[in-house]
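Q: Fold this one first, please.
A: Sequence and structure below.
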Amino acid sequence: MKKHFIVLVSVMLLWNTTVLKANVTLPAIISSGMVLQQQSNVTLWGTAKANAKVTVQTSWNQKVYNVNTTKEGTWRLAVATPKAGGPYKITFNDGSKLVVDDVFIGEVWLCSGQSNMEMPVKGYANQPILNSNEILMDADEPGIRLFRVEKKMSKTPQTQLDAKWESADAASVKEFSAVGYQFARILQKRLKVPVGIIQSAFGGTDIEAWMTTSSLQGFNDFKIPADTAKIAKNNPGVLFNAMINPIIGYSIKGTLWYQGENNRMNPLTYDKKMAAMVKQWRQLWNSGEWPFYYVQIAPNVYKDHADQIPLLYEAQSRAMKLIPNSGMVVSVDVGSMTTIHPPDKTIISKRLAYWALNNTYGKQGIVFRGPVYKSLEITGDKAVLSFDEIPNGLTAYDQKLISFEIAGIDKVFYPAEALIKGKTVVVSSESVKSPVAVRYAFKDRAEGNLYNVEGLPAEPFRTDSW
C-alpha cells in the first residue's frame, strides 16, 4: 500500500509540474488593471509550454487569436483594440486558462527621467510638492491606472519586473510621479477616456544610463566602467536594461522626459544623446514616431558646473530640431533657489499637457509654446529683440522684466533694462553705449518672466555665440 501511495504521489507531482510548465505566464505590465492603447494593434507576449498553441480571446469583440510558442516557450501577438472603454477581460489558454480582467482601453503614456520626474506627490524630505494634499483629495479615479517600475540596475537586458497596475487613489497617487500623475489626470478629464501612466524614473541619473550601449556609439564624453567594476546607477545602459527593456513593446501613445541636471558636466552633446536615445527607443518599440515631450531644467543655485547650465539649456532647446514629433516645456519661471526639485509640478504637468492636447490630440486653440527669440536689431544705444510664437504679443504681467543683460564689442555683459514695445523687447544699459549682444536668463540662477499673452514663458537665450 505504501509503495502504491508513493507511486501515486510521484505521478501527481509530475502532472502538477507539467501543468505549471504549461501555464501561460505574462510580464508584469500585462496584467489585471492595465490600460491598453485604444484603436491600435497592441502587442501581448509571454511564455507557455514549448511548441504549443496559445489562444487569446478579447472580451470587447469576442475575437479569438491563435499563436504558437517557440521552442523556448515564448510567444508574441498583436490584438486590435476598439475605442476607449471598459472594463474588459482577456483570456489566455494553452490548456490551462489565465484570465486578465479589469482591463481598460484608453490612452497610455510613459514618463521617465531623473528625480524631478520621480518626485512623488507626497514630496521628498523637507521638499514639498505644491498643493499635494489637494491633489490627493482629488485622486480617487478608477479611470486612471498607475504602473511604477521599481528602481533597478542591470548590466544585461532584463525582461521581468516586480510591479503592478494600481487604480488611482490617495494611497497610490502619493507614491507616484507628481508630474506623470497630474499629466494623466489632465488627459483623463479633457479627453474623457481612461488613462494609463507608466513611471520609469530614477533620481540622480545620467542620460547615458537610460540609453542602449549601441546608441552611445560615437560619443566619448562619459565613463565606461571596467567589466569587473561594481555596477552603479550611472553606468551606461544599466537603467535601460532593468527599467526600460522589460516594458518595450507595450503600446504607448507617447513619452514624457524630465532629466538633464546630471548631464550639466557634458552639455554640448546632450541634444545628440537625446536624439539617439529617442531614435533607439522608437525603433525598439516598433510603433512609429510617437510624441516625445520633455522639460527644460529649471534655474537653481547649482553647486558645481554652474557655468554649464546655460549650455545645457541650449542643448535641450536644439533637441527639438533633432527629434521628430518632440516638444519642450520651459520652466525658467518656476524654479527654486533652495532646491533642485521645484515644488510646483502642477504647472509643468499642464505645460506638458498643452503639447499633448494640441500637437497629439488635435485640440486646436490650446497654445503650447512660449516666445521664441527670432532676431536682433541695433538702434543707437538700444537692442530691439523680435520673437516668434507671439500672435497676440508679449507680457510680464505688470512686472518689470528681469534677467536681461547687454554687452558691447568688449563682450562684457551688464544688467539691462528691458521694456516691452509692441511685439518687441527693447533692451538698454547706461554702461553699454554701442550694444552688440543680449542675453536673457542665461545663468544658472537667473529666473525669467517674459511671456506671450497666452501665458507661456520664453526660454533662456542669447544672441551671441561667444
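Q: Good. Now the second chain.
A: Here it is, same layout.
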Amino acid sequence: MVFPSKKDWWLGIVIWGAALLLIIPPILFPNFGVWMTPAFLDKQWIKVILLGSTGVILLWIWFRTNYTVKEKTLQITYGPFKKKVNIDDIRSIRQTKDPFTAPALSIDRIEINYASFKIISISPKDKQTLIQHLLQQNPNIEIK
C-alpha cells in the first residue's frame, strides 16, 4: 500500500522557489552573475545543465515522495532516492516535529527507530493507517 507524503505549504514555497531560481535564470538571463561565476562555469550550457538538473531533482522530490508497505518492507521514495527498511527491524515509532533533514515534506512526522540505533523520520498523510499496516506485520513495534 502506498502512502503519499504530507506537504507543508511553507516547504512547498521553499522547494518551488529554489527550483525555479535554479532553472529559470540560467536560461532567461545568460549573463546573470557572470562576475561571480567560477571559471569552469564559463559555458552557458554547463550552467543550464548543473543548475537545471538540481532544480529538476527538487521538483522530483516534491512530486515523488511516498512510503510503500509491502512484503515485510517499508520502502521510502523521495525523488530519485530510495531507502528500504525491514519491518521486522522496526523497534519503535513516535510522533515528532523534528525540523532536520528527512525524506519528509512536512514537519508533522513520525520517527521510526530500527535496526541498531538507526532512525528515519517520514511524514505520511495518513499516519495512523501506515502505523496500523506496520503493526500488522510486526506487532512488537512499540508506539511511543
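Q: Anything worth noting on the second one?
A: The domain at 1-144 is CATH 2.30.29.30 (PH-domain like).
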